Amino acid sequence: MLPRLPSPPPTAAMSARKVARPRGLWKGRGTPKHGLALDSDDDPRPRKRQRYQRSDDTDDDDDEYYLLEYSPEPPGSPYSDMDSEPDPAVETKVEDWEDLKELFGRAAEQYDCDDVTEALPLLRGVIHECHRFLLLYEDPSVLFAEPNRPRSKSPEPISPTLNKPRKKCKCKESPTAFHAILGTALFLFGNLIAQDPSLALPDEPSSAAPYWLAALDVFETSENLPSRTSGRGCEAPEDWRMALVWGRTLLCITDEVLTLAANPSAPPPPPEPKWPSPASSPFAAIAMRRPPSSRRISLTTSIPHDLLLLAMDQFTRGIFHMPHPAHEDPASASTSSDPRVRPFSRAKELFTIAREVLALAERLPAPEERTRWAAWADGILNQMDMEGDTARAEWRGPVTRARGRCWLVVGTARVEDIEEAAEARGWDAVLDEEDADEAREGLGRAIEFFERAAGSAKGEFGGEDGEEMTEELKAEEEELRAFLAEALLTLANLTKEEDKREDLYSRAQALGADDLEDMDVDDDDE
């Protein structure tokens, strides 16, 4: 063990710098006016007092301490105790935000009216205005955020109190309001490009996928804002509108993935371009704000079932927080003064979700996936029934027809597997199995719904007053008859009793005799 060397004796310069030890809660607290003496070089930084301990020095009063200076926080800081003067730029920010909401409201209105020539330039303007905000502000929610309140003079407890009530949210806007506008604008713009790619300008993507993927990036960014992850402030309400659009955007991506899988010879989608700077494109600014922890969805490697699970999470969140307005006359219903808020109908939102999920369920490759998502869509439609929407004539027919389609998908999901098993082992053995029983149950419920839909639409399809049907009503009638005939014919093929089977064949023949002539009807008793 090395011997301990004695410390050098203090010099004269060190003795001249020796000061009395401050007392109090902090060991070296002072102000610029009454601070402790520093070196003659007037260095404003805190300097550590050098302590040289002799071998025989055991006095505890010579503990080391620091010389600290206090400077007040600048006005406007969230930690400032001083009253800050109003910032003249705040009014400009508020005006910009209100102008953006008004522009988006006009664009959404024209989109709902199917006026593409008016909606497209307005949506393009919304996207470019949001791009400007992304370049100006790291968190664009400062455009409408409430000013920071001065900190309390009293100390706050380190651990939260169990009985402490939650702070009531008094914010005028949700923290995700800006991202909801930008993401929804990208979603609607992508829908228009999907209908007509020629609408895109030369410097814009001519396919819808880049817009939908950018919308997902925007929604993901909104979930990682400091105002939502810091744990400070009030408990902001969920933006259910953004959750619904988020889910519908995932459905559009799922449709793209299924389309690519159905066409293996189609060229793969181009990779995300490398933008020179965020100012070069709105897509570059969105990619710059993308959270590092999030992984961008790929059209070539994503699984449709997994994408539907993500969409279901957003739909569940949005439906749970969606308001339940009383059934009112649309003409007398009150409208919101917020231009960003589009006309709201809970029944319309639920029906749109169920219809889009059902359209994807019919295209899924695996029978288990088709069954699951068709049943999920039927659950949404059943919710409309329980909420009393089907009591109104405007929803009774569409909801009933859609529920019939859901159960038709469930009933026909395993028909091919049943037929393959019947060819190998015979129909008598296969028709007694559980898969055949479930298929017959689903087809029976589909027939029930289709017949109810035909009955409720009797006046609609024929007109008790003798009015002629429009082309749209004729197409709906033909579609309903085709669905009912398919359900009857498929159920007949899975029916073991000969009398019931022949009756089902007769009913199917009556609905579409010309169409059923080419169908493979197996009359053999195997």
How would you describe this structure to a colleague?
By secondary structure, the protein is mainly α. The protein has three domains: 7-74, no CATH class; 90-147 and 172-323; 343-526. The chain contains 19 helices and no strands. It has helices spanning 12-16, 88-112, 116-136, 177-195, 209-222, 226-229, 240-262, 282-288, 304-321, 346-361, 367-386, 393-412, 415-425, 427-430, 434-456, 458-462, 471-493, 498-511, 513-516. Helix 2 packs antiparallel against helix 3, helix 7 (240-262) packs antiparallel against helix 9 and helix 11 (367-386) packs antiparallel against helix 12 (393-412). It is elongated and about 80 Å long. The protein starts with 11 loop residues before the first helix and ends in a 10-residue tail after the last helix.
So what's the overall shape? elongated
> How many alpha or pi helices?
19
Overall pLDDT score: 78
String of helices and strands: HHHHHHHHHHHHHHHHHHH
Range of strand content: under 5%
The major β-sheet equals: none
Helical residues, percent = 40-55%
Task: Count structural domains.
Answer: 3
Biased composition (Pro residues): 1-11
Biased composition (Acidic residues): 57-66
Region (Disordered): 1-91, 146-167
Biased composition (Basic residues): 18-32
